[in-house]
Write a structure and sequence with these properties.
The chain has one domain. The chain is about 15% helix and about 35% strand. It has one helix and eight strands; from the N terminus they run ββββββαββ. A two-stranded antiparallel sheet has the order 1-6. A hairpin with a 4-residue loop joins strand 4 and strand 5. The termini are close together.
């Protein structure tokens, strides 16, 4: 991750009853696992809806329908010793 760079990501929440689908990641500096809904970086010139459709296809080989934007969240965090935005 480049320092001092804001990275816009599209994240999709798949819910079934009281559960949501998440992926697992690992922070090597902290030595801890973390979990977040699946998705990824919005590429230059790409809308957030196109990005999430592409990311879901890449990550779980699925097409999605009924996509609805529910909000925007800013998340300041530390990952592998670097401060960043998610």
């Amino acid at each position: 991750m480049k320092k001092k760079q804001i990275i816009a990501k599209a994240i999709c929440v798949f819910r079934k009853e009281d559960a949501i689908l998440v992926c697992e990641g690992f922070d090597e500096v902290k030595g801890t696992f973390y979990y977040r809904p699946i998705g990824g970086k919005i590429e230059f010139g790409e809308t957030s809806s196109k990005a999430i459709r592409r990311e879901i296809l890449e990550e779980i080989e699925a097409s999605i329908t009924n996509l609805k934007h529910v909000g925007t969240i800013e998340n300041i965090f530390t990952y592998n010793g670097d401060d960043g935005m998610k």
